[in-house]
Amino acid sequence: MAGKNACEQYDELKFKLKHQIPVNPKRFKDVAKITISEMEKELALGFGKKSYVDYVSALNRYFIPFFGNTYLDNIDYTKLKEFEEWKVDKTRRKLKHSTLNNHNSALRRVFNVALERGWIQPYQIPHLVNKGKQGERRPAFTIEEYSKLYRFMRGWYKKARTQKSIMIRELLRDYVLIIVNTGMRPGTEANNLKWGNIEEIEQGEVKCLRIWVSGKTRKRELIARHDVRRYLERIKARFEEVSDDDYVFRMADGKRPYDINGTFEILLKDSGLLKDRHGDVRTLYSLRHTYATFQVLNGIDLHVLARQMGTSIGMFEK
């Protein structure tokens, strides 16, 4: 594809994928693999949707293991009901409405790939329903709880038994503080953040940090509170030098953390803050909700806050 622009590469890719013939054009796993290949290549070329990452994960984790050698035209309401029961047994919980929307979209894409190539007929596509658990308000931290967590982390990271554990706990401390003070999404936005995405700006006489993030939504900017500069400098001080292309959230040995979620859970258990007063378990996303809660309590305009966090007023109302 050398010498071709992105649009030409994309058109050529679509043509090749459309005429790609699976081992068995009616067997689910063969069509699903083509569907995954199509999405991954579109993502690599910059044309794919962010949601494709979730679709690929759902197909690999749930759909291919269950349906496997099942023919597409044998997937009906009864088979889908069996699949939902299997999925509940596998996850040991009822998945949320938003998660099942992604799953339905991933499955629908497999059927559309087969339909476009003439391997099935429209009437063979089953009607997909979503009986998932409606999303609930994620638990945040109160000001008192956050202060407790802030103080607890100072000595906690030093008590790990191995050097590797110390490094990931050390990084987690700054990760927590940066998320709470910016409202960026843990996971996608935080994990994709590079030093080149951070710049100094002046708003009147006040110096701020402008951080460009990308993940769940399109690339957007957020303005960081003053304390964030100190936490970023602390991360930077662990390395002899950093470049614009280096990821921000790396451990002192240069490696990216593989299980920051698990380490955060250990932190919450050790600090006695795993659950809120309603008994709901906190996750990394509770940090983002804590930022939103603190901003609302400080009287920030909701439209400004929605823009800062890359979400909608409706989401705040929920």
How would you portray this structure in words?
- With 318 residues, this protein is mostly helical.
- The chain has 13 helices and three strands; from the N terminus they run H-H-H-H-H-H-H-H-E-E-E-H-H-H-H-H.
- It has a three-stranded antiparallel sheet with strand order 1-2-3.
- It is elongated.
Structure keywords:
318 residues; mainly alpha; 13 helices; 53% helix
* Secondary-structure element order, N to C: HHHHHHHHEEEHHHHH
Q: Tell me the strand order in the biggest sheet.
A: 1-2-3
Rg, please? 23 Å
The fraction of residues in strands falls at: 5-15%
Biggest sheet features: 3 strands, antiparallel
Measured as a percent range, the helix fraction is 40-55%
Number of strands: 3
- Could you say which overall geometry the principal axes of the C-alpha atoms support? elongated
Low-pLDDT stretches are: 17-23
Mean pLDDT: 84
Q: Could you say which structural class the secondary elements and strand pairing correspond to?
A: mainly alpha
Structure summary:
53% of the residues lie in helices and 6% in strands. The protein has 318 residues and is mainly α. Mean pLDDT is 84; it is low at 17-23.
Task: Give the arrangement of secondary structure elements.
Elements: H1 6-18, H2 28-45, H3 51-67, H4 77-91, H5 97-116, H6 143-156, H7 163-182, H8 188-192, E1 198-203, E2 206-213, E3 220-224, H9 227-236, H10 260-271, H11 285-297, H12 302-309, H13 313-317
Antiparallel strand pairs: 1-2, 2-3
Helix pairs in contact: 1-2, 2-3, 2-5, 3-5, 7-9, 7-11
